[in-house]
């Protein structure tokens, strides 16, 4: 499928937060719904990038916030898509929405691990669901160690919305900072690409097939044409835009 050619517009951290607020107020969506749609989009992007026939074992690294919740939803769909997901979830919040996602995964016999070093070694690919657009430094343990492992790992990585450790507006960390060497292979932007995506040169997908044109126009971003019944669309690389 050819990448969708649409005039690229970026959604800052402030505007992304405002959009989420509007979606969950006048938009009529619940957090559960948005998480489900995001996680399904990410699972589809993983399938398009690394199908289970080639890279069946997926390590999902989930952070403590909504980005981690998206990763848990993606893990459920990946299991049903024929993958063998394992979840590393070291900072699980004691909130109903995350507890239910955890229960859904355990009911599907999805494994959870505390041994991140071994899990990365054994995985065929990694889904980075640690930090999203609301991330602000500094990175704290255990994620300092985790980001270091991602920097040194040769396994393909798919990042949800923002590569973890990157600033949503200004992009990757400076040389010498934690995460400066972390560049995922695939990025799945949610709703609209964030400014940090300008610095990303890999395969780039967009998920968000639930936004009305009216809302997109109001918030100042463009909607691509999604193919068929897909929940994600591949965006052109910088070279393809020329």
From TrEMBL:
(6S)-NADPHX binds at residues 66-70, 132-138, 161. PANTHER family: NAD(P)H-HYDRATE EPIMERASE. Catalyzes the epimerization of the S- and R-forms of NAD(P)HX, a damaged form of NAD(P)H that is a result of enzymatic or heat-dependent hydration. This is a prerequisite for the S-specific NAD(P)H-hydrate dehydratase to allow the repair of both epimers of NAD(P)HX. Belongs to the NnrE/AIBP family. It catalyses: (6R)-NADHX = (6S)-NADHX; (6R)-NADPHX = (6S)-NADPHX. SUPFAM superfamilies: YjeF N-terminal domain-like. Residues 16-223 form the YjeF N-terminal domain. Binds 1 potassium ion per subunit. This is NAD(P)H-hydrate epimerase. Its cofactor is K(+). It comes from the Eukaryota. It comes from Lipomyces tetrasporus. The lineage of its organism: Eukaryota, Fungi, Dikarya, Ascomycota, Saccharomycotina. It holds the Pfam family YjeF_N. GO terms for molecular function: metal ion binding; NAD(P)HX epimerase activity; nucleotide binding. Keywords: Cytoplasm, Isomerase, Metal-binding, Mitochondrion, NAD, NADP, Nucleotide-binding, Potassium. Its main location: cytoplasm.
């Amino acid at each position: 499928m050819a990448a969708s050619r649409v005039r690229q517009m970026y959604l800052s951290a402030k505007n992304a937060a405002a959009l989420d607020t509007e979606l969950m107020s006048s938009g009529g969506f619940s957090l559960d719904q948005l998480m489900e749609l995001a996680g399904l989009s990410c699972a589809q992007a993983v399938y398009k990038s690394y199908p289970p026939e080639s890279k069946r074992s997926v390590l999902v690294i989930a952070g403590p916030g909504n980005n981690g919740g998206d990763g848990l939803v993606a893990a459920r769909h990946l299991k049903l898509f024929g993958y063998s997901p394992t979840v590393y979830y070291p900072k699980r919040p004691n909130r109903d929405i995350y507890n239910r996602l955890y229960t859904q995964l355990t009911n599907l016999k999805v494994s959870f691990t505390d041994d991140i070093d071994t899990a990365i070694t054994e995985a065929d690919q990694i889904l980075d669901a640690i930090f999203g657009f609301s991330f602000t430094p500094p990175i704290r343990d255990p994620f300092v160690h985790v980001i270091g492992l991602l920097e040194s790992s040769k396994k393909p990585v798919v990042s949800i919305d923002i590569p973890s450790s990157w600033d949503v507006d200004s992009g990757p960390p400076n040389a010498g900072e934690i995460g400066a060497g972390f560049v995922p292979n695939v990025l799945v932007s949610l709703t609209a690409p964030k400014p940090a995506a300008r610095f990303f040169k890999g395969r780039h997908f967009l998920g968000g097939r639930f936004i009305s044109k009216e809302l997109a126009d109001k918030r100042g971003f463009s909607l691509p044409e999604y193919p068929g019944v897909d929940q994600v669309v591949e965006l052109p690389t910088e070279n393809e835009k020329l």
